[in-house]
């Protein structure tokens, strides 16, 4: 198993070209992939201005507010009207949905998960008890509050690790557990687990969508709607070092 630790404070901010915010990418898998062909991605975004989110076809997204007043998310088709204002509460949506975000106050920061639909399943949650990093084929965890210990190393807010067993044998992971604190905030951990969809299942889902089902001929879009388990908010690249949220008329 490949394991990599990180410290959010040490990650570079990639500014969006339109000036609406920045992204700190924690991991994009597989290594060397682009934002057009990644399998899964976890990042932290800072929203400093209202504007539309990027449209990412075939990507499921999950997002949760880390700090700030949050933003109201509204889709162009009226299917989404959500106040992203409760800290650590996960909201899921489809990447192809055109969404505008209106800040509800000052700058806000959020934690994001994106997975390639039909290739990976992902789940984001906040946990307060010990977890094992080898309990899923891949995953990410980041300390939200308190102190956590893994393999003798103590992690604090903004620190964490990601792991994957894809193409890596050996290390089976380790426990990460909260440490008691005197007067500190109750321990909390952002916990993301990822599981790859078997190739056979991908083919079956694709064939069913292509052939259509029943008198109404279930379309690819409706098939995907029934299977979706969405994911987070982020931005699209415009250069090697800049990102931009796509603006829609």
Written description of the protein model:
With about 250 residues, the chain is mostly beta strands. The protein has 2 domains: about 1-125 and about 160-170 and about 200-235, Jelly Rolls (Sandwich); about 125-155 and about 170-195, no CATH class. It contains 2 helices and 21 strands. Strands 2-3-4-11-6-9 form a 6-stranded antiparallel beta sheet, with no helix packed on it. The longest helix has 13 residues, at about 200-210. About 35% of the residues are buried.
Low-confidence stretches: 208-249
* Spatial strand order of the main sheet: 2-3-4-11-6-9
* Major sheet size, sense and barrel closure: 6 strands, antiparallel
Q: Can you identify the CATH class of the largest domain?
A: Mainly Beta
- CATH architect. name of the largest domain: Sandwich
**SSE arrangement, N to C:** EEEEEEEEEEEEEEEEEEEHHEE
Strand-residue fraction? over 45%
Total of DSSP H or I helical runs spanning 4+ residues? 2
What is the general shape? globular
How many individual β-strands? Answer: 21
Radius of gyration: 18 Å
Helix content: under 10%
Which properties best describe this structure?
globular, disordered C terminus, single chain, 8% helix, 45% strand, 249 residues, 21 strands
Could you give a short description of this structure?
The protein is mainly β. 8% of the residues lie in helices and 45% in strands. It has helices spanning 199-211, 220-227, and strands at 2-7, 14-15, 21-29, 40-47, 51-52, 59-67, 71-75, 81-84, 90-94, 99-103, 108-116, 120-127, 131-132, 138-145, 147-150, 153-155, 159-164, 175-179, 188-196, 236-237, 243-244.
């Amino acid at each position: 198993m490949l394991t990599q630790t990180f410290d959010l404070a040490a990650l570079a901010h990639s500014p969006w070209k339109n000036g609406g915010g920045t992204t700190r990418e924690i991991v994009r898998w597989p290594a060397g992939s682009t934002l057009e062909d990644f399998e899964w991605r976890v990042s932290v975004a800072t929203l400093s201005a209202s504007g539309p989110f990027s449209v990412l076809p075939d990507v499921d997204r999950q997002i949760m507010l880390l700090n700030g007043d949050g933003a109201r998310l509204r889709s162009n088709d009226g299917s989404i009207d959500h106040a992203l204002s409760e800290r650590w509460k996960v909201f899921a949506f489809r990447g192809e949905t055109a969404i505008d975000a209106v800040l509800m106050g000052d700058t806000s920061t959020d934690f994001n998960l994106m997975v390639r639909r039909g290739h990976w399943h992902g789940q984001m949650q906040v946990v307060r008890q010990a977890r094992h990093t080898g309990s899923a084929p891949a995953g990410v965890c980041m300390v939200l509050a308190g102190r956590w210990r893994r393999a003798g190393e103590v992690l604090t807010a903004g620190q964490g690790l990601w792991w994957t067993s894809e193409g890596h044998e050996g290390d089976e992971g380790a426990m990460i557990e909260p440490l008691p604190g005197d007067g500190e905030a109750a321990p909390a951990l952002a916990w993301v687990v990822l599981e790859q969809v078997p190739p056979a299942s991908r083919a079956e889902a694709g064939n069913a969508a292509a052939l259509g089902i029943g008198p109404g001929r279930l379309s690819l879009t409706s098939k995907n709607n029934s299977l979706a388990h969405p994911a987070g908010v982020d931005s699209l690249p415009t250069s090697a070092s800049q990102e931009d949220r796509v603006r829609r008329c």
